[in-house]
Specification:
Keywords: Cell shape. With 315 residues, this protein is of the alpha+beta class. It contains three helices and twelve strands. 26% of the residues are buried.
Amino acid sequence: MRDTRESRLLLVLLIAIAFALITVDIRGGEDSPVDGARQAAAAVFGPIENGVSAAVDPVGNAVSAIRDSGERHDRLAALEKENAALKAKLGSDDRSRSRLKQLDKMLKIAGEGQYGIKGAEVIAIGAAQGFSWTITIDAGANDGIKRDMTVLNGDGLVGRVTTVGPNTATVLLASDPDFTVGTRMESTDELGFASGQGDRPLRVELLNGKAEVKKGDRLVTFGSQADKPFVPGVPVGVVSRVDPSGGGLTRILYVTPYVGFTKLDIVGVVVEAPKKDPRDTVLPAKPRPTPTPTVTVTVTPSAEAPLDDQIQQEQ
């Protein structure tokens, strides 16, 4: 339609009629004279609206899904956070159980050896104090710790106290090259001196060059005068290698220590020595030998064997 005076006049007229019908419909309420026309229009255009609605619904559903997805993501994030917290708590519980196990083992050694100990936690490691193999513990002079006290844990000999502060102390580990401790062999009572070799087995020099020693033999501390720096009877380790005897005055052994020096946590400082030397009574029970399985093979003669032999003879 061209934009003419007549077309503009027609548009104004149609708008006026529309407003008039709306006014009549509103005033008429439920008895509106145009109600029939509205129902007829609904009958005509209803199916079209439903089709359009069906076409639009997937889009709306997608938008709703995205919105719900965001809500689900939030819920998932919250659940993951709770799960992480539970795992952290479980890890903390596992660590607590591990530390309780260490403490139980240490108290068992202390009880069997009649050592009076002061429990402590390892709070630092390293060479900050001038040694190659040292740890720092959270117990010091205020806890009764003094220089040259024996340090042990649930596995055996850890080292000796070298420096003491008010609330901390430095312990020289038995694995340090400057560390030396007197040892006693289990059963035979052969004496020697064990020296640290870092991450390698301890080197033990027996005073008896003709001593009979074999792999698997065990050693404990011999003890020092006035029990400083070492009390007697603390487990040291197991013989892993024996140098051939060269007829010398001494004999060299290599001993795998009981203590894992790279994973120390709970330790005990011996503040009161035993009244009686426990000798080798504190050593753990020897492991039972693993039985070697034997296989018995039984050969059953075949019933067809004679026939095969007969065939071979005929040939």
